[in-house]
Amino acid sequence: MTGVPRRRLLGFAGAGVALAGAGAAAGAFATKASPEVENVAAAKVPFRGDIQAGITTPAQDHMHFVALDVKTKSRDELISLLKEWTVAAERMTAGQEAAENGAVGGNAEAPPKDTGEALDLPASALTITIGFGPSLFDDRFGLKDKRPERLIDLPRFPQDDLDPARSNGDICIQACANDPQVAVHAIRNLVRIGFGRVAVRWSQLGFGRTSSTTRDQATPRNMFGFKDGTRNIKAEDTDHLRDHVWVSKEDGPDWLVGGTYLVSRRIRMHIEIWDRTSLVEQEQIVGRTKGEGAPLGQANEFDEPDLHVKGAGGIPLIGEIAHIRLASPEALNGARILRRGYNFTDGSDGLGHLDAGLFFVAFNRDSRTQFVPMQQALSTKDDMMEYVEHTGSGHFAVPPGVKEGGFWGEGLFR
Amino acid sequence: MTGVPRRRLLGFAGAGVALAGAGAAAGAFATKASPEVENVAAAKVPFRGDIQAGITTPAQDHMHFVALDVKTKSRDELISLLKEWTVAAERMTAGQEAAENGAVGGNAEAPPKDTGEALDLPASALTITIGFGPSLFDDRFGLKDKRPERLIDLPRFPQDDLDPARSNGDICIQACANDPQVAVHAIRNLVRIGFGRVAVRWSQLGFGRTSSTTRDQATPRNMFGFKDGTRNIKAEDTDHLRDHVWVSKEDGPDWLVGGTYLVSRRIRMHIEIWDRTSLVEQEQIVGRTKGEGAPLGQANEFDEPDLHVKGAGGIPLIGEIAHIRLASPEALNGARILRRGYNFTDGSDGLGHLDAGLFFVAFNRDSRTQFVPMQQALSTKDDMMEYVEHTGSGHFAVPPGVKEGGFWGEGLFR
Ligand code: HEM
Ligand code: HEM
């Protein structure tokens, strides 16, 4: 461990720093987040814009993710809920309470409109991102025709061990912030507003990010101890974002243009087995060195992996089934995804081990040709599969950003 | 929400700042943590001293707590384990890997001696604190005679709903740090070292502290939205620490002098019911205002509660069964405890709600006359009980600090 602080500590204590991000146009996203503000507690990320925040926003340190079942059968109630959520979400990302005078300034004889646990906390770069699952597009709300063809029920992958209680959902909400209490407060207040109309299906707390999403961010490490996110799509890669993340006009449906698809996988990592594997073996499984995170055969983290270079005996240095080969665009007809996952530790497994892992979140433009073949390759060939277990899964269509005066997902109801 | 950052951001980026704390003598603990360093990522808390760190250390933002069952039957193996743990714990609190060249610099053909996920992270004020549960003092290790009289099996309290899978344990280890990945890494590596000798019984991640333990720290909020820790014993209250926390020579047993007793209670909070309660009712249940945290009848958070002042109709402003009255030294023959709890959110409860609450951790000198009567009073009279459910419990004897050349709990084996 070196002395490099995870949160860069700068001579900086100002409030109200706005991070660019959500406001940028989908097709021309080129905002470079300044390293000086990336993780400052007071940072505010604009809620409205052409795209939703929380996708290309510099990945914050903490996440609280919830999947909800809609309980009301009324289309109008669903619409009002989305409108109420939009107001509350915008307020909270600005560092305000869920409603004006929400926690203590309102009618004292009534339940407070904000639950209060973030009262003294700054915005902490909070982003709140919504997505709609396949099940929302059934008969209940007249949305059947709106279901994007690409919003498939994900196939069963080899070795899947999915818990229905950790999978799917009509709606997902991802809250990310540099203070976990701010992220938890956001989800909790949205759930509270939805009381009677939605119920929590599952929720996941992530305590440490596993991906950098801008070139400025130091690459964090996952629970296998490896740097994760090195060759991720970054906010600066505008061509990749256009080609691999944002839904275009040609793709359709209309209501989703400027949106994307979110795939969540709760991946339990059998860390105690991993920890008994030699360093060499770990590095071969991943295809990178553990310390520096360099591709095997190269010296530095950001060197391009050379998938052809061979070592002794003509064996490729990055093995035929190394994780980074199987998941690489080179092996997948150019397919890429934007990863934005978090580490988790959910108590113990009842069998003497910690229940730890990676809450994998990825965004892509067409899961059928990006995430699915990638996970298909990994789940059939990747040696890493011996150490992991996919225990939860979700697939959600993430609408574009909210325009002035608009509300979350309004295009769905036009 | 105001612009006051939770982590005070100062023009300060130095590494290796040592926080005083563990080194001070138990009876004369008078160290005042400087606000300038309290939450700096690079802060290092000394591991050795007369008392263990992690009790009066300024409460860090995150906690990972584990309870372990000892699987070996050999006293010698238990002793070696405690020695190995001591080395690793001291290293990690200094911001180092669990072993020299642990993650990547050792023999590449062997499993690494450090799991690597904290490789680039600074010490983050990590403290690691050990405690021994009643079950350790059975026949297995010849420790029967060493069991402190005060280390009782906690009684069953009214409304207890304890899950054995979240309760008790032979050994507990509490890791607190300002970066959750650092705390999780510490526990995970100690568990790894113990492989075959100990098994994880339960573990709990806390994402936000609920108590301040020094006068400099802003009081954090719990999941009911109230400031928590206002009238806690603080590191500066040397008389209270002597009278209510540290085991003295007269108390005995010898091996525990300078130690204390830790009580853990996993308290599920039914936040969705609480959130439907009016502000007035919430404040009456607690006995304090929600915004400022002032005792009812007073203006400011740190005003002394006046338990006698009456309002309209001669009814006490702080009700007869207000939480802060029932738990006050005035109501409990002067009993006080040092609280050092954390908020948690563990996914959902399968019934449509978040599984959130308070992981209550308290230190006291004699749980029989401090925690037990307090919890007895609360569990029979406190209206707050309608909103909470105690789902886990633990009681541990926390040995004194580790001297130079010594190891965790060595007094036990003399
Ligand atoms: C616990 C499970 C996983 C772990 C520990 C893990 C770990 C890693 C690591 C260490 C890297 C190298 C650094 C980097 O470029 O980010 C990597 C790369 C990558 N992983 Fe994973 N991964 C996991 C699951 C997945 C899954 C489920 C997918 C998608 C289906 C995936 C897709 C990728 C991709 C696309 C890359 C970049 C490949 C390249 O172009 O070099 N990973 N992963
Ligand atoms: C979820 C459960 C609990 C919640 C939400 C809660 C909340 C609070 C709050 C808001 C205060 C006032 C501020 C302060 O002085 O810290 C307080 C005070 C206190 N609580 Fe709790 N508490 C809980 C459980 C417990 C338990 C289990 C105990 C011990 C058995 C306890 C002991 C105390 C004590 C000793 C005080 C200070 C009383 C005084 O001297 O003014 N609390 N608690």
TrEMBL record, chains A, B:
* Bound cofactor: record note: Binds 1 heme b (iron(II)-protoporphyrin IX) group non-covalently per subunit.
Name the gene for this chain. Answer: efeB
| Keywords (A to Z) from UniProt | Heme, Iron, Lyase, Metal-binding, Oxidoreductase, Peroxidase, Signal
Q: Which residues form the Dyp-type peroxidase C-terminal domain?
A: 219-403
Asked if the keyword Oxidoreductase belongs to this entry, the reply reads yes
Organism whose genome encodes this protein? Lentzea sokolovensis
What cofactor(s) does the depicted protein rely on?
heme b
Quote the protein name from its UniProt record: Deferrochelatase
What's this protein's function? Involved in the recovery of exogenous heme iron. Extracts iron from heme while preserving the protoporphyrin ring intact.
Which PROSITE patterns is this protein grouped with? DYP_PEROXIDASE (PS51404), TAT (PS51318)
